[in-house]
User: What shape does this take?
Amino acid sequence: MRYASIRKLDISNGEGIGASLFVQGCHFHCKNCFNKNTWDFDGGKEWTKDVEKKFMQLVESSYIKRISILGGEPLANENLKDVSDLVSELRVKYPITEKKDTTYSDKNNSKHNILIKNSDEIRLSYPEKTIWLYTGYTWEQIMYPVVTDDFNPERDKLLKMRRDIVKRCDVIVDGRYEEDKRDITYHWAGSTNQRVIDVQESLKQNQVVLWKNS
Assistant: This one.
């Protein structure tokens, strides 16, 4: 895999303050794409173990609450292996944890946070980092790909890898950018056909569930 850039203190590509990795290479070539320099799979810089180590050190910072992976196309076949390895490493370090109800109601039915004095419990109860992934593929294309019946183990391996990457994320922004649906007021996406999807809730409910603030 090659990458175009790494952005620190990113506030545009997801909720909160994050660090963003722009991978190199895309087959979609959306009209008026804001990042055409990432289309060429031979462009950018080489993603090495040293670069990956520096990226992991960057996201360790306490002020980084989100890691975004975009491009280019992170789920292009050419990028799947390295993106999968990166997401797996991030997920081991920052696992998805169940959000628990940490409130109670008093006699006036007012809500109070029972963990307000225990920052360690709060940190254990909520994920320290969320992983966001931007892709031109739709949720349906990733989770329910239409394939022919011919025997193709290599294709099936790539399709499974794509699904597995998404399943380890917290949020994906799906679909290609469409110029006629551009909306600068639309949170975290370029055009209104794109959806900001809560991955874990969507998997639980077996249907697309939008991220709470989208």
